[in-house]
Amino acid sequence: MQHIKVYIIFLSLLACISCKKKETLFSFINSSKTHINFQNTLTSTTDLNILNYLYFYNGSGVSAADFNNDGLTDLYFTANQSEDKLYLNLGDFIFDDITALSGIDNSSNWTTGSTVVDINNDGLLDIYICKLGNYPGIEGQNLLYINQGLKNGIPIFKESAQEYGLNIKSFATQSVFFDYDHDSDLDMFLLNHSTHPNSNYGSGKTRMQIDSLSGDRLYENIDGKYVDVSAKAGIFQGKIGYGLGVSISDINNDGFPDIYVGNDFFENDYLYINQKDKTFKEVISNDRTKLGHTSHYSMGNSVTDLNNDGEMDIISLDMLPENLKTYKTSGLEYPYQTYEYYLKNGYSPQFMQNTLHINNGNGSFSEIAHISGIAATEWSWSPIVSDFDNDGNKDIYITNGILGATNDMDFINFISNENIQKQLGKNMSDKDLALANEIPPKKVKNYFYRNNGDNTFQNETEKWSIPKDSYSNGGIYVDLDNDGDLDLVINNINEPAYILKNNSEKFNPENKYLKIKFKGPEKNRFGIGAKILAYIGTKIISEENYTTRGYLSSVEPKLNIGLGNISTIDSLEIIWPNGAFQTLKQVKVNQEIEVNFDNASGNYFEIKPAQEKSFLSNSEPLFDFKHKDLVSIEFNRDPLIPYASTNLGPQISVADIDNNGLDDIFICGGKAQGSQLFLQTEIGRFESKQEDLFVKDAINEDTNSTFFDANGDNFIDLLVVSGGNEFKNGKPLNPRLYINNKGTFVKDTIQFQNIEINASRVQAVDIDNDGDLDISISSNLIPWQFGKSPKQYILKNNGKGSFSDATSYFGQEFQNIGNVQDIIWMDINNDSIKDAIVCGYWMPISIFINDGKKLTLQNNNNLQETNGWWNTINVADFDKDGDLDLVAGNWGLNTRLKASKEAPITLYSNDYDDNGTIDPVITYYYEGQETPFASKDELVKQLSFLNKKFLSYKDFANTEFSGLLPAKKIQDAYKKQVFELASCYFENLGNNIFKKRNLPLMTQTSSINSIAIDDFNDDGYLDLFLTGNNYDISTQLGKLDANHGNILLNDKKGFFTNQLHQKFDVPGPARNIEKIRISDKDYYIISINNNTPIFLKKNK
Length: 1100
Hints:
Layout: H1 2-20, E1 26-28, H2 31-34, E2 62-65, E3 74-77, E4 85-91, E5 94-97, H3 99-102, E6 111-117, E7 126-131, E8 143-151, E9 154-159, E10 172-178, E11 187-192, H4 197-200, E12 217-222, E13 225-228, H5 230-233, E14 243-249, E15 258-263, E16 270-274, E17 280-282, E18 294-295, E19 301-304, E20 313-316, H6 324-329, H7 336-344, E21 350-351, E22 355-359, E23 365-367, H8 369-372, E24 380-386, E25 395-400, H9 409-415, H10 418-423, H11 430-433, E26 444-445, E27 447-451, E28 457-459, H12 461-464, E29 469-470, E30 472-478, E31 487-492, E32 498-502, H13 504-507, E33 512-519, E34 531-536, E35 539-544, E36 548-549, E37 553-554, E38 558-564, E39 568-575, E40 581-588, E41 591-596, E42 616-619, H14 634-637, E43 652-655, E44 664-667, E45 676-680, E46 686-689, H15 691-695, E47 702-708, E48 717-722, E49 736-741, E50 744-748, E51 759-765, E52 774-779, E53 793-797, E54 803-805, H16 807-810, E55 819-826, E56 835-843, E57 846-850, E58 855-857, E59 868-869, E60 872-876, E61 885-889, E62 905-910, E63 919-926, E64 929-932, ...
């Protein structure tokens, strides 16, 4: 027995030793080895602390450069309150502190970021340092330390900011050097920050005013002197700028560098597109659809090609918690009504989350952080983006943590006390300072994300490192030991800096690399702004040589690219800032090469390679119509719901009204807006007709319409239905029939008066094969009763245009199927009678077999558990096997909501507080735990008893859903569930048994609202054109705005491939697609909520 105990103890010791020796891709190198003892230590005083300087806990950065040109990269750390440090790299991860010997002395309050640049073009790298100036108790100015060369092997620096016009006194955050005007010298953009968000909030137009301390600035290099050209160049300099991140990149691939600025708080981020004439045009403030939403509390950012398609993508960090309890105790988004006011006040959509904007190559971006897996990483500062495992895909390291989380709701409630606020004046006491200690710290781990190569990322934090909780801020990638993989250097608050050695040469020896050093022209010796394109098979790896990266930090002016398991690079293009380029063939890997500007010639941007064919192209609007929808009031009535059903229009119908062989258009109007009829002229224009007829029913929110010959006179009649979840009953919910009297519509005032329906679709179909067209009217809701199933209608035609309700006997099962969004009638079982294929919210895709006498719900077809938030469905034989397949548009996978059979989204409707009102409580699963979708603030608006039950946000966060509401009420609630949120293709395997397959990832980035079927590439196989987006969802879910139109080509193998870099754009909340013939050419018209329709020409 004693031997067994000894053996067990021995095994335990072995296990402990094994744990200690855990090998990971990155390993921490101790300061006893590196001799780097730097730490950014903060000391609060009554004069300077988090309560009187907003960014006291924001940390500082680090820069890398070979300052002594010995081939080893050195490190410069900035400290907020104490002395900056310069460390010389001696090799083998050993460094020497040479700060005092180098002549650098920056130890006064308050330092932020630093940038390396050869400002005098002598081949020696200098350091530009940003400081807080002219702030109470602080009189700093930016510093420029010029490298004077070596003395006894030590680089010596001289402070010379005034000589270059760079002794700037402002609230400086970070600088970036680049050649914005193509005159071959380096200009400078200075990112500044404001300090008082509450008092500064106002109209977005304030960004047009100039604030000398907070406003960003652009300086042009004119004969070695830096001159402020901000106003002339179109740079915003307002007091509402809270700049924390800046990146430079040629975002639109036109050869000129553009600027991305990340702003904290309420102000928009800025995307400045270089106009090639020394001016910039800011995109986000001018067109909210180009990027859609951005991060709300933007911190560090990075612009780089994350998916190897040759287009530069944008990642910006925020402070959305990954931890559920932290999420529930944190300040979240504005209520919908406040958010709408915020937009009206001149701001663009912003939400608290990391954002990843994929560049679509047509001036638009798709924000996909949730579906990519990187949206929530706690309080995040710096995205350090590079290929850490050298597999050819860029990965992400995210720094995290803050000494005091000022968005903790319990602290906010505490500090908001009127008496406490009065204490926090200009003359703080030690007692007042103690209040800062009440702010809960958020000391959390940094994150590693491995790029999967398909626009998604895998969290490898535990596999790639032994994570430590920290307050990490600025950081960089750098090859400290010249082994071809990138190490990490991180600046932390109140603890030593991290040095993480990359062991990729050991873990991934098959993966190769290439290092590129630049020998630039006379005024840009290090080739800042040069771009490389590495062609490896079908992959393009692109990188740009800019030093300012991430947050408050800068890297050396050298590129290190991972290549994967290859032996040579097919070709390497080097493109210099002025467009001159050089192409190298069959480049060997695992080496460092130097590229020389003198070997480049021509202009790359004048001979750019041909673009892929765009199957559609945007055309000018062909008639004057702008849909007008009021701001949804549904969230006022139901603050707990995830989406509104008030703004689902407009829909379009196309037919030849006057029998002249030309397609005409009917487009539905919003509430208080008349629908309109447009007749096509012989020259391909459209004229509005009979406006007086339709404006009489402008009170209706028309949601759908159908053209059909109701009375058999060979003229197309019109049936219009309404909805909008605004009227509970009455005439605004009556369908309206318009009889076509030889090209002129006359309203039938008799029929459908006994039907009141909040309609989603109306279809004309011969349900009984008697030769006339009958009607189905679908409904998605009972007004003001979220989630309750409405009645669906089947109306039979007597052959003369008179309709009777046949629902009770023809559609007995059909009438209560659920919240129907779309229906299509097709003969799915080949009996020559059209069947009904139905989709909607909280319901499965359903097929009703029509025998001419009634509709019977089909079972055992693998569709029974497809409950989703389905918007649209279409049907065709895509795989040419003789039966009909289905394709359906859903909510998408790009919000925090996920759903499956095992972890569904659930609606629990009940009167939880016994006040006579039904409360719709929605839950979802997060990390295996069922949790309410709504925040505490939203819940207590409707269920005030929760405020007494949970006095603190912490108490609320620690309570599981089962303990939140009365158990009996939950048990007795009216329940509905969602198991699927992906848009899907359903292959018919024969006998109407279906196999589900998610559509390609980029179609899942938003809701899909309409699907058109066409053969776009003329290969004899049917392809798909999808549009979508939904702006009217809870602010806690952000905004579904990433879809700009998708073309999916049939791969002839039973599925589809997404076509990249199509040059057309369908921005905004697209509602439906209709094909139309104009002047003997095929077009698509796409209706847009609250905007003008989009016309797309089909290209041959």
